[in-house]
Amino acid sequence: MSAIIFTGAQIAALRIENPNQLYVLSCLTGLGYGTLFGVYPALVADAFGPSGMGINWLVSSTLDDSALD
Prior knowledge:
The radius of gyration is 16 Å and the shape is elongated. α1 packs antiparallel against α2 (22-48) and α2 packs antiparallel against α3 (53-62). It has helices at 2-15, 22-48, 53-62. It has one domain. By secondary structure, it is mostly helical.
């Protein structure tokens, strides 16, 4: 579902010509991220297994690329 919302946001970004209509893009992007964040724990549990769900969720939701340097 979030992929469909993000696709809609990309289509809106391509079609918006008036900067006053950027709220549409912002709303669709926020809705997409909100939807993805809602199912993300299930994706982490499916990918890594339920045994280490707590630490895997903590690391995947708080770690950014700068910590890997």
